[in-house]
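Entry 12.
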Amino acid sequence: MAGLIPQAFIDDLLHRTDIVEVIDKRVALKKQGNNFTACCPFHQEKTPSFSVNQDRQFYYCFGCGAGGNAIGFVMNFEQSEFPQAVENLARDAGIEVPREESKTQQRKSSENAIIIEVLELASKFYQYQIRQHEKKSSAVTYLQERGVSGEIARDFGIGYAPTGWENLLTSIGTDDKRQQSLLRAGLIIERNQDKTQNKITDNENSRANGRNYYDRFRERIMFPIRDSRGRTIAFGGRVLNDDKPKYLNSPETAVFRKGSELYGLYEAKKFGEKFNKLLLVEGYMDVIALAQMGIRNAVATLGTATSSRHLNRMFRQVSEIIFCFDGDDAGTAAAWRALETTLPLMEDGRQVKFLFLPRGADPDTHVRAVGQDKFLEELSSAPPLEQFFFDKLSQDLDVNSIEGKARLSNLAKDYIRQIPHGVYGQLMLDRLSELLGVNSESLEKLLATNSPAQESSSPPAENLPPAHPNEWQRSGRHQNLSSNLSVYRKPASLKAIELLLRNPEIALAVSIDLKPLRTAEDEGRKLLLSLIEMVKKDPNTETFTLLGYCYGTSLGNQLTQLLTAEKITPQEGVEDEFLQILDNIMSDIVKKLELLQLKHDLQSRLYAPKDQN
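Predicted 3D structure (tokens):
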């Protein structure tokens, strides 16, 4: 069912739900003092570090950093989206989930359902053609030459789009309504549209029998792209003749956003084995070839660069990602871009490796050349992110010279600052200090001194790393890390949210006009305003209710660990610090608004018509 789940229902569901019962059904808990413990279900460990606090209705793993409320646990454990996790908890509680839908949302949901239905029909059509079409031999021969078995073709729903302009259109587009659905699904093209790639010639136009549309995919091997629920949302087609492009994807539609989808992720989950790592490759056939060789945990982006959305989806399934690239210059450049995207997501407990293949090889050809066992060995011994990072930055430097060390420091510091606050970030800093021969404490102070001091110069909040538990800082030289580096680790809005999550009642002390905060474009500031308004509306709002709301935002993954981070502010000073931070944020917004107004006034004067007198 589509539509928003009312926040009041989510709050009530969390009040009705005992997180200990929810987790104990899935992981055996043992009472220990005021908490319950177990071995963490999200990473391998022998000594229990997974803790559940019944009073606060909150779980946390001191090993991998996973944490949250009952909804968050179900999302992580069952690898489900937020709405599905709410549905599952509601079902256990014996209540039905209500939905809020405007007429616009209802219409959109209905239209999307029709698009999904048409795409499913198209997938069945293509699969039927590869079995029954009189000219199927070219498609079957291609797959056989690539070593694809019938079982793998079935598991991935591989099909065939025959030669011709109206095969799918004739089969499914039986009336104007269906044709419009095919068009919205990206399966057919309006004949006279002015797009060079899909524009047909006058000769081809005459062969289209006067129809207004023609099939997008023709004489291609068809790969259905499925969402997390296994529904077909798009297609990729591999040409069987000399047409260009070699691979053609569906255009973006109401149900398909290629910048966040991963080919093969549903199939990897469906296979049944619980993986602790995913292999990211380039294309459809790489995923399929690896599956054919028994390696079922490979996924691919859809012709786009790896994005943080891709990585967040993968990290929700596993703790380790291995990028697989060609060993040429282009592959190294692509790997570095992937590393840059990954750094802000490198929370403690996560691991990233880079496997570089021989020049000219791809995963498809390489795995067939070396075999499954050898390929798995190569995956296990692939260089970790930190090795690739420092090797790449140092490759053209003389790190034995003062100039080389200074250059390395200058290159590395801005990258290391992007790493989430935690053990991994500290170890990267330690490694840099070893290479430079500089005392770690001095390096920390230098980076803190040179870091941005104002939130306005910080990266956008949605790209900033989450806070992490700092229990390890209590020994020796690590004690000052949080105070030295937190300036650039956490923007003011996230710090304010952290304080608010610890003590929701401090929102009641806010007496200033928050109207300017409504103009903020930063996600952290928007969320801060929403949380303050929630508490003001209901002074009895509790911490886990606020966390439940946070799970539905783009910052949800970053906020689950704030409650367990080491508390720098004494309890009695929380309200004063919160109000001070809020005042600073408001002042910053007001200054920006004033500058914008001043700029507007100046432009108006500069470009105003001159007085003719």
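Annotation: Confidence is low (pLDDT under 50) at residues 194-208, 452-489. The CA atoms of residues 421 and 486 lie 8 Å apart.
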